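User: I'm writing a tutorial on reading structure tokens. Could you give me a worked example: one chain, its sequence, then its tokens, then a sentence or two explaining what the tokens reveal?
Assistant: Sure. Here is the example chain.
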Amino acid sequence: MVLSGLDEAALGPRLGPFCACVASFSVPPSSTTGQSRSPDLYHILSDSVSREKNIPGRIAVADSKLLYSSSSGIESLESGVKAFLEAADVSLPCSLADLLSALCPPSDLKALRGIPWYEDAGDFSIPWDWKASGGKSSGKTGPAPADTVSLKPALDRLGIRFHRPSLRFISAGAFNREITDRGGKGGAVRSILSPLLEEALAGGNKPGSDEQRRITVDRQGGRRYYGEWLSEVLPGAPLRALEEGPKRSAYSAGNRFVEFLVGADGIRLETALASMFAKYLRESAMVLFNRWWAERVPGIRATAGYPQDARRFIKEIEAAGAMPENREMLIRRL
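And here are its predicted structure tokens:
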């Protein structure tokens, strides 16, 4: 069985990239015995992971908003991302540019060319080099802790494989172009996420295959009906709506099962992990973004890019006469 989670980071901000990730695990039947209707990776991996931070010998996997804040620093979020990257045989350390090349489609990388605040992505180290990045590390300087729990042996013992995650990294300018092309923000997000959904569900319809695939998507806002979108993602599949309620919308197509849950990143490990990857790449990009602008507008305070503070940041850029000629390269539409 393949269990996947899909989540995004930074749908609301006006500055910085929109990121999304799908994280997938191949899980043997022996690991799901007794819970075949809704396998729970938190239960299966309970000896190795925890929803809580700072549990000795366990990796924190939770909604990224619980693991990261500007005051607490990036360590808890980064430790989990690092452990799962190593389990997927992604070589570390590397640069942010290398990591984006490994996880993103070529179209996303092509769209980043010519964006000045991302030009130093090749010099930004993963895991973070705190002294070089100017990031907060709970008052510490120098590299982030290197004593991340090794996850791969635990997965191997259980016969579980963590696949290399797939990411979308969409700059402000590319996001604005999607809005124009798709007739609005909702259509833009669907267009960006569709390749990730397709990838997670691919293979479940092979002739003679009885492999089950389940993807859990963190549901945003009040939307309840996803059948039309899934029909585009799975053309010709025998799509059936199982539930379309206020908290959960669920669909099946043969051996493939898609579930949209409110608060999925607090319920399903695979969706929480997707949120962590998306948030980590977003925060890495914002370090580059803020560093670039600090070199050109003396005294400007860093921003996370969310609307209220983005207005302040944009005003300071305008007052300094540093606004790019193409504003849409910098500022995302609401």
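What the tokens reveal: Confidence is low (pLDDT under 50) at residues 131-146, 204-208. The radius of gyration is 20 Å.
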